[in-house]
Amino acid sequence: QVQLVESGGGLVQAGGSLRLSCTASGNIERINRMGWFRQPPGKQRELVAAITSAGSTNYADSVKGRFTISKNNTKYSVYLQMNSLKPEDTAVYYCRSGPGPTLWYNSWGQGTQVTVSS
Fold first, then answer.
1. What pLDDT is recorded for position 112?
2. pLDDT digit string (tens) for 1-15?
3. How far is CA 83 from CA 24, 63, 65, 104, in A?
4. What is the dihedral of CA 58, 87, 92, 83, to 10 degrees?
5. How far apart are CA 112 and CA 21, in angstroms?
6. Quick one: which H or E segment has residue 93?
7. What b/e sequence results for 17-26 when a residue is b if at least 16 CB atoms lie within 10 Å of its CB, and e otherwise?
8. What 3-state DSSP class applies to 73?
9. Which residues are CB-contacts of 54 (< 8 A; sequence separation ≥ 6)?
10. Which residues contact 95 (CB under 8 A, 6 or more apart)?
11. What is the per-residue DSSP string for 4-49?
12. Are 115 and 48 in contact (CB under 8 A)?
């Protein structure tokens, strides 16, 4: 099983920036993809960005050009640089890992709260 720990959330004004971090531990040798999801208040959890072990990335349309996902294979860590934040980016952000390009493990981190004030 994979354990995930997120950090870096907080309160920021619209237009500001935050950087989220996530580190995986446990059964990490089968991880081939890591990503960030978010769950706004009263809404379903959604994929924000993902990155494969080869470095391929994909983003939700709502964050393209503002968010950047990156990784550190040595530490099995993934980061999310969030710029030009908007109030609608307010959510709990979760890290997730998976063994392949279309699969995710069921385990989630505890999440980190991001609040963007207008």
1. 97
2. 899 999 999 999 999
3. 24, 9, 9, 26
4. 50
5. 10
6. strand 91-98
7. ebebbbbbee
8. helix
9. none
10. 4, 5, 6, 20, 22, 24, 34, 35, 36, 37, 78, 108, 109
11. EEEE--EEEETT--EEEEEEEEESGGG--EEEEEEE-TTS--EEEE
12. no
Query: How many whole angstroms separate alpha carbon 29 and alpha carbon 17?
Result: 32
According to DSSP, the residues that pair with 81 across neighbouring strands are 19, 68
Mean pLDDT along residues 38-49: 97
Angle ∠(71,73,74) on CA atoms, nearest 5: 130
Burial per residue of 80-117, b for 16 or more beta-carbon CB atoms within 10 angstroms, e otherwise: bebeebeeebbbbbbbbbbeeeeebbeebbebbebebe
